[in-house]
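Much of our argument rests on the idea that a fold can be written as discrete symbols. The amino acid sequence and the backbone structure tokens for this protein are reproduced below:

___
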Amino acid sequence: MKKLDNANIKILSLMQENAAMTADEMAEEVGLSASAIQKRLRHLRADGVIERETAILSAEALGGVSLFLVNVQLVQTKHDTIGAFRAMMKETDEVLQCFHITGAFDFCLLVAARDTHGYEHFSNRFFTEDNYVARFETSVVLKSVKYGFELPLEHLLSRR
């Protein structure tokens, strides 16, 4: 991957704000032609900088969803155990995010369920009845204060 120039950083920032923005709209913001924007987007996708484009849904508008932060400690931290747990979490719809972490726990998960009963069912399936998990701790999200996926490109990619 080539180093990103200012135009690419601006395009990526606009995509993070609104992936539905048209090339014409981006062109006005960036100061390039729409065809140049489209060409750059193709390259950013092909290079894997843009992994995917998705919609962020409102849990409140859908009738509410409960979120749970779960720290998980595995029985063993062997390569195959970690790999099996990762694969299982990738395939589990309720797991919104899964991080392999350092410290007292091996993984930190963000889990969505309809309510605490739904989470109890999830935790029984994957933690209580699972041979990989030694222990887990759950925190119920009372209110999402900041919930986003936008990388702070201006700070991360600033010229040094």
